[in-house]
Design a protein that fits this description.
- It is a single chain.
- The chain is mainly beta.
- The protein has helices at 90-95, 247-253; strands at residues 4-12, 15-25, 28-33, 38-43, 71-72, 111-118, 121-130, 140-148, 152-158, 166-173, 181-183, 188-191, 196-199, 211-216, 221-225, 230-236, 240-245, 265-272, 280-287.
- It has a single domain, classed as Beta-galactosidase, Chain A, domain 5.
- Strand 8 and strand 9 form a beta hairpin.
- The chain binds 6-O-phosphono-alpha-D-glucopyranose.
- The site of 6-O-phosphono-alpha-D-glucopyranose (G6P) has 9 residues, from strand 17 and strand 18.
């Protein structure tokens, strides 16, 4: 019999009082925070952390937690103009609220819907109801299902036919950035730094500068080759994969990371970016073969 458990814990690392759940399956474990519905740790083996979490991350004052797997929804990056309410006059324009980067749910409390411990895995489902979308008058319920067994699978569902973007913004922990390789990636990407479409001859990315790229129509499986281990990232219902590393200058500007932290992580984000009104069932599975 494989030992399987789910335990409610109060606080994780330096994030005191943070309401979390710890999932265990044989020697593997994962920690999920109710704040942000965010996976903070995934260890396929007791001493093998795959996710990076900033030592300066905080969850107070509505700060999103820097690290783990933040959930971006219903927009990615700055809000798209199509999702903004159109002001009818200058007074409404002045009163227009500021819309935060990456949507509305990474700095709110989610709720536990259900949990199961079975031989097939430890699974919890969280949900959040959002009634303040700027472009939709009703309440929308989102579900996040996290399953731990020989892999970790995160699935984000929204059954409504509304305009929605989403990303599972995973921060992968690395020790030697110069030895990391990400592949296979399409030969064309949208560079978010230059706003240009760029063509390359290689389908492998090695990071030696600031990178903020949207690769459209990526393969379902992407490999992150690290120093000692490689990680397989399997994606479903995505139309893009975003790769981000802030590098030295931008990292120094982040309030919730140390200046040299850009050497410790790379974000590989499974995303649905097309603004089409249809349900969402985005998932990312992390395996460490
Ligand atoms: O600082 P945040 O709002 O968490 O965003 C962190 C990063 O997320 C994504 O990877 C975007 O592509 C980047 O442009 C952004 O800088």
């Amino acid at each position: 019999m494989t030992p399987v458990s789910i335990l409610a814990i109060n606080g994780f690392g330096h994030l005191a009082d943070l309401p979390c759940f710890k999932l265990k399956y044989a020697g593997a474990s994962a920690v999920v925070s109710l704040y942000g519905g965010q996976v903070l740790s995934y260890k396929p083996k007791p001493d093998q952390e795959t996710l990076w979490l900033s030592n300066l991350a905080t969850w107070h004052n509505q700060q999103p937690i820097r690290g783990g797997i933040p959930i971006c929804w219903p927009w990615f990056g700055p809000i798209a103009p199509q999702l903004m309410p159109q002001p009818q006059n200058s007074q409404q324009l002045e009163l227009q609220p500021q819309f935060t980067n990456h949507g509305l749910v990474r700095n709110r409390l989610w709720q536990l819907e259900q949990q199961h411990c079975e031989q097939s895995g430890a699974q919890i489902q969280l949900s959040i109801s959002v009634n303040d979308l700027p472009y939709y008058p009703g309440t929308i319920k989102l579900f996040l299902t996290i399953t731990l067994n020989d892999t970790l699978r995160i699935r984000l569902n929204c059954d409504e036919d509304i305009l929605q973007q989403a990303a599972l913004h995973s921060y992968f922990k690395i020790r030697k950035l110069e030895q990391c390789k990400i592949s296979p990636l399409p030969s064309q990407y949208q560079d978010s730094l230059s706003q240009q479409l760029v063509n390359t001859s290689s389908n492998t990315l090695q990071i030696d500068q600031e990178v903020d790229r949207i690769y459209h129509h990526t393969e379902p499986d992407i490999q992150l080759q690290k120093d000692r281990h490689s990680i397989l990232i399997s994606q479903e219902d995505h139309d893009a994969t975003v790769v981000w590393n802030p590098w030295q200058e931008k990292c120094a500007l982040l309030k919730d990371a140390k200046p040299r932290d850009y050497l410790n992580f790379v974000c590989i984000e499974t995303a649905r970016l097309a603004l089409v009104a249809k349900p969402l069932a985005l998932s990312q599975t992390i395996s460490c073969p």
